[in-house]
Amino acid sequence: MTAFVFYVFAVLAVASGAMVVTARNPVHSVLFLILTFFNVAGLFVLLGAEFVAMILVIVYVGAVAVLFLFVVMMLDIHAVNIREGFVKMLPMGTVVGLVLFAELVLVVATWGFGPGIEVARAAPMTTGLTNTEAIGVVLYTDYIYLFQLSGIVLLVGMIGSIMLTLRARSGVHRQVALEQATRPLSDCIEVKKVATGKGI
Amino acid sequence: MVSEIPNLYPALPEILLALAGMALLMLGVFHKTDGSRLIGNLGAAVMIVAAVLVVVFGGARQVTFNGLFVTDSFAVYAKLMVLISSAVTLLLAVKWLEQENIIRFEFPILIVFAALGMCAMISANDFLALYLGLETQSLALYLVAAFQRDTVRSTEAGLKYFVLGALASGVLLYGVSLVYGFAGSTNFDVLARSFAAGEPVSPGVVVGLVFIICALAFKCSAVPFHMWTPDVYEGAPTPVTAFFSVAPKVAALALFLRVMISPFGDLLAQWQQVIIAISILSMLVGGFAAIVQTNIKRLMAYSSIGHVGYALIGLAVGNQAGVSAVLIYLAIYLLMNIGTFAVILSMRANGRMVEGIGDLAGLSKNRPIMAAAIAVMMFSMAGVPPFAGFFGKFFIFKAAVDAGLVPLAVVGVLTSVVAAFYYLRIIKVVYFDDPADQFEPMPTHARFVLGVTSVAVVIFFLFPLPQVLVAAGNAAKALFGA
Q1: ipTM of the complex
Q2: Distance from first CA to last CA of chain B, Å, rounded?
Q3: Of B310, B145, B311, B332, nearest to B243 (Cα)?
Q4: Sign of CA dihedral B184, B186, B190, B191
Q5: Burial of B274 (0-12, 13-18, 19+ CB in 10 A)
Q6: Hey, is the C-beta of B142 within 8 angstroms of any chain A C-beta?
Q7: What are B8-52's pLDDT values in tens digits?
């Protein structure tokens, strides 16, 4: 049964992954990407990594893919233009792809662990914790350095996106309550003496 | 489940940089007027204080944060170079950006975070820590490259650097994941132990190692991963180019040394040819491509590619003498580059910045002292004794010959003859060509920096060389002692 479910998820993940790069319409590509994420999340559940599965769905589907969708829709990309160089690039791309594939085959064909390496491999925790708890236990203790450093990376990214895009535009009307309340009366009202029958 | 607090003392400089970066950010946001200059000075001061902390709490090898972070004499040496050069270039940069009226307070803060990332890279004892340090540094660098956001050149430089840098990070992660999959750990100590056991290494580890080398070669702009360097150097604002050519280069090479020697030291036979090839290519490209350049920032880009090639000879040697030679070379390289960029940052004629080599023509008639300083820097870069540059090359070539890598040393000597051509051409332009427009007087900052560096380059064999020799020797010993 598990094997059957695995094959369903795996086949769907690979098929929709292929559709991401071949679909003509970029919006369809993003939708297939979301389907891929769901299937991979399913594979994670089969592995017993339910936390990673949930994070994948929440972060990648909920935030990243939806953001992609917005960007794709707003930029209004024409798929035809993207494919212009396809035939020209095909031979080069095929060569690079084949070389990488050959390397992967070489690597996987000789898969094996030396006796000394087996010991060094990180041992899983066997204390009966759920894996959400297990991640929580190590994330803020053993890996606090990495956690904090990731925070700094995000902070730098935030500073950068503000720095590169924020412009102080002139001529924008903005309400400043303090200025309004402390405005002297002389600035607001001008008393004019109107001569009869003449107007201002 | 209560766990004990990790030993924070070895990481105090990094903690200081992180906290100071955030505090300066607050200061910048809430400062009534434009506080850029204040923040720039404070940022430089923070880096100097961090350098003091590095010396005070460094020294003997200490590992903390569950084996993710390490300090030793090697880290102390590299961090001192990074922090001091960052502080100096930051001061020069703030002055220049103020003059050009494009300063914003984020600039010094990004430099502080870049310095934090570089320190984290140097002290990484685990591939995860390495990756995060590298990303902190790289993100900050992409941003400062695109800092002049209203000019096409600068934004193009930033974008190009970002796209290629992101690709290099991807390659690095791919390599790391292969090594993790086949060797079972990302921790440098654990990896070193398992490779030292002398079992046959699986091809997976070697393929992963090659990917890691590619990514690190990209980060220190070694050929054939150097394509971005001339464009980014030319497009980025000049003080940013000055910064790029010193601190990040040192940090990337220090990281290269640590990764190759510490976890993969026992696999020397596997990676030596790769490093030799990269080194020879870098020296050739650095030598020949620079000849046709007319823009001085592009010239410095090719020059730095060549210098990385020489430094990598020391890594290819792969023993203690080689590493110590690289560290000496880097210190000298810093000195020469900071001095040269102090000049380039002051190339201002008729109220605007110029960056052509032709603009230096006849400088000796108008500004004789500036001209003399350039001549000293160029002689030193070309490796003419008794200037500092000669000693850098001398120790590198000596280490290579002692280790039997004579062909590598011969290529090095030949390409430095080629490189001497374009360094000497600058001296010829400065002294023997008809004067171009007169430069405005150098700002005080730049004059001070240029004075100190040129004196240091001239009397290098008397004053800092003996001390640098000892420090570099200790640092190299620490890297191999682990």
Answers
A1: 0.93
A2: 32
A3: B145
A4: positive
A5: middle
A6: yes
A7: 899 999 999 999 999 999 999 998 888 889 999 999 999 999 999
* Concatenated DSSP letters of B286-354: HHHGGGG--BHHHHHHHHHHHHHHHHHHHHHH-SHHHHHHHHHHHHHHHHHHHHHHHHHTT-EETTEE-
Residues spanned by the domain of B442: 268-482
CATH number for the domain running over A1-77: 1.20.120.1200
The strand pair at B352-353 and B348-349 is best described as: antiparallel
Number of domains in chain B: 1
What span, in angstroms and rounded, lies between the C-alpha atoms of A60 and A37?
Answer: 7
pLDDT at res. A103: 83
Query: Among A107-111, B221-225, B300-304, B375-379, whose mean pLDDT is lowest?
Result: A107-111
Let me know if A28 is exposed, middle or buried by CB neighbors in 10 A (0-12, 13-18, 19+).
Answer: middle
Within 8 A by CB and 6+ apart from B399, the residues are B313, B314, B317, B319, B321, B322, B324, B325
Judged by CB atoms closer than 8 Å, whether chains meet at B143 and A103 is answered as no
Does the residue B214 lie in any domain?
no
B428 vs A: CB within 8 A: no
Inside any domain, residue B163: no
Among B69, B116, B184, the residue with its CB nearest the CB of A120 is: B184
**Cα–Cα distance between A10 and B205 in angstroms, integer?**
27
Give the least confident one: A72-76, A142-146, B241-245, B287-291: A72-76
Q: Render B9-25 in DSSP notation, one character per residue.
A: GGGHHHHHHHHHHHHHH
**Nearest chain A residue to B205, by CA:** A107
Confidence of residue A137 (pLDDT cuts 50, 70, 90): confident
* Interfacial residues of A (vs B; Cβ cutoff 8 Å): 103, 106-107, 110-118, 120-122, 137, 141-146, 148-150, 152-153, 155-157, 159-160, 162-164
Instruction: Give the C-alpha separation, B327 to B72, whole Å.
Output: 14
In a domain, residue B349? The reply is yes
Q: Is residue B371 part of a domain?
A: yes
CA distances in angstroms from A69 to A14, A77, B395, listed in the order given: 21, 12, 57
The alpha carbons of chain B give a radius of gyration, in whole angstroms, of 21
Is B402's pLDDT higher than 50?
Answer: yes
User: Which H helix or E strand runs over B69?
Assistant: strand B69-71
